[in-house]
């Protein structure tokens, strides 16, 4: 049989079966196998490769066409048409362009491939060039600036705005631009055009030069406006031969600056003028009377001032005329300026002063008390700020202005001041009057409420018995001493001998006894005080209750105790009575039986017998807590009606075990009491006879009837 062939038989397929040894075997049941072997060799067909191309760029070097075949051609083939070399070597100088065929033959057949040979000329970008433009020139193709005979169709870099080789001087930048020619087979060729741009000449803008009495030379170029270029010429020519103008030799006039280059001509002018300096004269001063005639300040300037200047600050006249009756004495500045000239302004000053008018002050009155005996200078009673050195009429006994109440008479005294320099006079009158002192015979002071609460009320003082004083307005001075101290003046109105005045609570900040003493009493507007030495002082007790203080944790209460306002008051440390309010100021007071509310703020104030309260209330925020704990079973009680331990009371029993049952027995086992949450507590009597049981030990059984807690037994001692 035949094995290992793809056909499954003895058929060999050279395209898929491998070369090698194949063994043929014959077998039979009775005889041994017989075998024979065939050795198969498979030869590959010839491979001339794939077609290729060869483009030679003006080359004179030989080339092996085999290297231009594509694929993996086998060697040993032949070329047709035959090359001059007799092999596959191609010589551009002798062999022509065209298709050359490579043929490879073997026992398995033939294979061919061709190489297409062509010749190409080298790329030509021309030679470098340069070009100079004015910024105003029209667009130009840079190709025309290349030397030689460049090929068309190349590209420029950097790219121009036009997208081609056209250069626009108004938008493209000066610099180097490179022209490149490319082809597939020959290397790139480049050439560069250097572009330079020239600006139009700029002679700047017209200017002016005004010289003020100058003898110093100036460069006219510095007077041109704008940003002129240097290197121009001036016409008419200056004596310096340049742009330097010498005021001593060159004339006023218009000088033209001209600048020329390949892009055109530009010119600008400088108008030169000469000016004389301004003269405001020299400073001056003047002293005038208020009644002096008007005067021209110009006449007070020294030197030879120019006319036509201005005065500042401006005078009422609008010129230099000063009117003493309306213009203010001060320093006035005269300024001379030349509009448009180069010479600076010149100034001088005139200081104007006015001799003050005589001032005798203003009329006034001098009220002297009837008991006044000391002399007094009437000058001190004149109103305003009078000048000294005046005279009094009628003449006083002293021969001066000193008035003696014991000698000189009452009346009008005239004070006169005269200015000899200005011929002016001024006078003022002092009217002298003798005033009786108020008669306070019978006047007393008292107060209805001798206790004042600090911060809550004023003190009211009553004046009575002042029947010798006419009805009217008076001024009193009273003094506070002891706990509070101050001296105060207040106006009062007395009618029928009676009046009241108020001492503000701000004057009574301190607690304790304060005395009120009447120091002086005047008729309102006069200065003669009554004699107050005999007036008895009034005493005021000033109460200042402190803010209440509360014990530690005094704001906490057992919720099951149903606490009240009274319970809150028992937690206050102070002994005074406490009133509780719903507001920190004013507000409504609570009744002592009112129930406390958890989280509510209460405001407490101490109160005295006189009705004063704490100026600042204590703020307490109530905090309810749960006070129920473990059962507390007393070991005895004493039912003697003294209000203390009169019953067998197990604490927290009702709250913790509301379903309980309590039974009490004597030592013989007789039941004496049975009760639950709805029964009265055991008070030491027998339920059978309702009689009081004797002192001794009794036994109880407490059934909880709640959960798994077992009944509890114990003993209690009853004490009589």
TrEMBL record:
It comes from the Bacteria. The lineage of its organism: Bacteria, Pseudomonadati, Bacteroidota, Flavobacteriia, Flavobacteriales. InterPro entries: T9SS_type_B (IPR026341). This is Uncharacterized protein.
């Amino acid at each position: 049989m035949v094995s290992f062939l793809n056909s499954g038989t003895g058929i060999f397929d050279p395209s898929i079966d491998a070369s090698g040894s194949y063994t043929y075997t014959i077998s039979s049941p009775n005889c041994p196998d017989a075998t024979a072997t065939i050795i198969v060799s498979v030869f590959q067909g010839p491979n001339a490769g794939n077609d290729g191309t060869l483009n030679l760029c003006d080359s004179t070097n030989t080339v092996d066409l085999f290297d231009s075949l594509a694929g993996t051609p086998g060697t040993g083939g032949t070329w047709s048409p035959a090359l001059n070399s007799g092999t596959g070597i191609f010589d551009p100088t002798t062999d022509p362009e065209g298709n050359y065929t490579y043929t490879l033959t073997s026992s398995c057949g033939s294979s061919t491939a061709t190489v297409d040979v062509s010749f190409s000329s080298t790329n030509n970008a021309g030679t470098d060039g340069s070009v100079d433009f004015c910024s105003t020139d029209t667009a130009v193709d840079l190709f025309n600036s290349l030397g030689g005979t460049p090929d068309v169709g190349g590209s420029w870099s950097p790219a121009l705005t036009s997208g081609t080789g056209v250069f626009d001087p108004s938008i493209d930048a000066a610099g180097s631009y490179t022209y490149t020619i490319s082809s597939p087979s020959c290397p790139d060729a480049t050439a560069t055009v250097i572009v330079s741009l020239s600006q139009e000449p700029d002679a700047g803008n017209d200017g002016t030069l005004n010289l003020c009495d100058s003898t110093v030379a100036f460069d006219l170029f510095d007077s041109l406006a704008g940003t002129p270029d240097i290197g121009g010429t001036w016409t008419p020519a200056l004596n310096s031969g340049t742009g330097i103008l010498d005021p001593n030799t060159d004339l006023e006039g218009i000088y033209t600056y001209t600048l020329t280059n390949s892009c055109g001509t530009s010119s600008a002018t400088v108008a030169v003028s000469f000016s004389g300096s301004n003269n405001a004269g020299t400073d001056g001063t003047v002293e005038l009377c208020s009644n002096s005639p008007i005067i021209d300040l110009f006449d007070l300037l020294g030197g030879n001032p120019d006319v036509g200047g201005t005065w500042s600050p401006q005078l009422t006249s609008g010129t230099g005329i000063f009117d003493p009756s309306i213009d203010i004495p001060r320093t006035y500045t005269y300024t001379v300026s030349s509009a448009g000239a180069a010479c600076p302004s010149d100034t001088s000053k005139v200081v104007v002063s006015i001799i003050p008018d005589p001032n005798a002050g203003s009329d006034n009155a001098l009220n002297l008390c009837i008991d006044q005996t000391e002399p007094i200078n009437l000058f001190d009673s004149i109103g305003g700020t009078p000048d000294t050195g005046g005279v009094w009429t009628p003449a006083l006994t002293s021969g001066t202005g000193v008035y003696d109440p014991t000698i000189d008479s009452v009346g009008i005294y005239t004070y006169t001041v005269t200015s000899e320099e200005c011929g002016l006079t001024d006078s003022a009158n002092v009217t002298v009057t003798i005033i009786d002192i108020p008669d306070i015979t019978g006047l007393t002071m008292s107060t209805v409420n001798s206790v004042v609460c600090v911060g809550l009320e004023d003190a009211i003082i009553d004046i009575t018995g002042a029947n010798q004083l006419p009805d009217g307005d008076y001024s009193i001075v009273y003094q506070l001493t002891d706990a509070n101290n101050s001296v105060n003046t207040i106006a009062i109105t007395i009618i029928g001998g009676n009046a009241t005045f108020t001492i503000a609570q701000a004057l009574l900040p301190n607690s304790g006894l304060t005395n009120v003493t009447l120091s002086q009493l005047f008729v309102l507007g006069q200065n003669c005080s009554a004699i107050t030495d005999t007036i008895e002082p009034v005493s005021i007790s000033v109460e200042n209750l402190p803010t209440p203080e509360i014990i530690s944790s005094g704001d906490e209460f057992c919720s099951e105790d149903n606490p009240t306002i009274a319970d809150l008051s028992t937690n206050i440390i102070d002994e005074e009575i406490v009133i509780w309010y719903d507001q920190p100021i004013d507000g409504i007071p609570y009744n002592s039986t009112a129930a406390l509310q958890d989280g509510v703020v209460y405001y407490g104030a101490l109160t005295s017998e006189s009705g004063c309260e704490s100026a600042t209330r204590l703020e307490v925020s109530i905090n309810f807590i749960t006070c129920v704990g473990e059962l507390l079973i007393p070991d005895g009680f004493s039912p003697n009606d003294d209000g203390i331990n009169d019953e067998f009371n197990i604490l927290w029993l009702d709250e913790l075990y509301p379903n309980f049952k309590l039974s009490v027995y004597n030592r013989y086992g007789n039941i004496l009491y049975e009760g639950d949450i709805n029964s009265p507590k055991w008070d030491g009597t027998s339920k059978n006879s309702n009689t009081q049981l004797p002192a001794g030990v009794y036994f109880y059984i407490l059934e909880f009837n709640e959960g798994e807690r077992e009944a509890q037994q114990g003993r209690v001692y009853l004490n009589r």
